Amino acid sequence: MKPNPVFLKQTPEFWAYVRTVSQEVGYTERGKSVIKIPNIDDVKRAFKNLNLSLAHITSEKDKPTEFGKTLFAYFKYRASVLNNDVQNQLMDKTEAGRAFLDLKKRLNPTCKLPMNKQKGTKKNHAFLTCIVNMLIEAGIQDAPCDYDPRSLTTITHNRMPLRTLARRVDGAFPSVVDPIAIWEIKEYYYTTTFGSRVADGVYETLLDGMERAELQSSTHRKIAHVLFIDDKFTWWVKGRSYLCRIVDLLHMGYVDEVIFGREVLTRLPAIASEWLADYRHSAAFVSGNEA
To answer: Same domain for 114 and 172?
Structure first.
């Protein structure tokens, strides 16, 4: 999923309203497996409880302002993409395992295919990570790639560190130093509850995105940032409110694209091809300058 351009350039004030309304009204319909669309009456009750003014959302005649129209349009959009699209993209461990085995047989990869961190009967390949690695390897052809960075992402200028991100990412192309793209993978196929580790993963993405935004604003250096997530039980049954937060992060500009579940099979090959074209262009540029 790429962000909807209509909501991509909203102000921090807009996102303050999104978070406040979502928190007070609720992200989901009680007793139903759907994302909630707040209406004006919901917001009135919530703002009354918080002793907040509605002036920026509604006019004196109780009609929505332009700001209010955009706000309610966003809630409708967020619910629609999650209820109708994302829910159907998420896989369970059986589906993900089958996709992994099919790709492994077809691609005959040489990249790392890591195991998960589970024990006993739950120990298996980290399906989504392996799928991501295989598809990237196929898409970038013979270009270098760091599928498992063991150091922090560093941006340089004149061979000196310019910015170093606070967290290690799950992958970087072509290298963790001056990458064209970085990615994170949140797969939770064997979890039975929505624990703090899963919630923390969302906030880690926020931190990475804020640092990347500062980098671009201050230095005009851009790194593509993609988030891959999967497991229907974890994210849809237990964590729908965090899916809302992820869609918010996408439209706040803190991640360039979010790939949900089986979407990885159709979307990642195109992304990897784009990265390869950027890499070849940059390599040719460097080679030309050295000549």
So the answer is: yes
- With 60 as the cut, is the pLDDT of residue 198 above it? yes
Could you tell me if 272 and 149 lie in one domain?
A: yes
Same domain? 152 vs 166: yes
- Total domains present in the chain: 2
State the Cα–Cα distance between residues 150 and 86, nearest whole angstrom.
31
- At CA 180, angle to CA 209 and CA 162, rounded to 5? 70
Question: 44 with 144, same domain?
Answer: no
Confidence of residue 52 (pLDDT cuts 50, 70, 90): very high
pLDDT (0 to 100) of residue 282: 83
Tell me how far CA of residue 285 lies from CA of 55, 107, 289, in angstroms: 53, 31, 6
pLDDT band at 285 (very low <50, low <70, confident <90, very high): low
Under 8 Å CB-to-CB from 47, ≥6 apart: which residues?
24, 53, 54
Q: Are residues 20 and 122 in the same domain?
A: no
Are residues 184 and 107 located together in one domain of the fold? yes
Structural domain boundaries enclosing 79: 5-89
Q: What is the mean pLDDT of the chain?
A: 92
Q: How confident is the model at residue 203 (pLDDT cuts 50, 70, 90)?
A: confident
Same domain, 29 and 173: no
Q: Does residue 152 register a pLDDT over 50?
A: yes
User: What pLDDT shows up at residue 291?
Assistant: 45
Please, which residues bridge with residue 171 across strands?
Answer: 183
